[in-house]
Protein: THAP domain-containing protein 1
Organism: Corvus moneduloides
Amino acid sequence: MTRSCSALGCTARDTGRSRERGISFHQFPADAAQRRQWIRAVNRVDPRSHRAWRPGPGAILCSRHFAEGDFERYGLRRKLRRGAVPSQVRHSGVIAEPYTSHQKHAGWSCSRGHAVALYSAVYLCYVSLI
């Protein structure tokens, strides 16, 4: 079965063709602290429970969600650096926008008019669920 990138809106699938195009795929880390950082960076919410999404054992992210500096090169191959956290995760074309503490009020909107919701003690643009 072909696996797909877990980032919302990403259409990358783990196929030979995508790998030929230079897209690599990376499983969520086993280390609990780093795994939490990846989950926060992906910023997905379970649509049923409205709680943070939990990746399954086969969940992956594609290389498009990491900065080029997150990789080490070994000849023609490249490897994700230890401790790398996805920083290029987009939600419906909008990068999640963190809010400062003085903006923590229900009903506020982000600069693009999307609803704001509490996620991991930070208010983020909630466009991914609209």
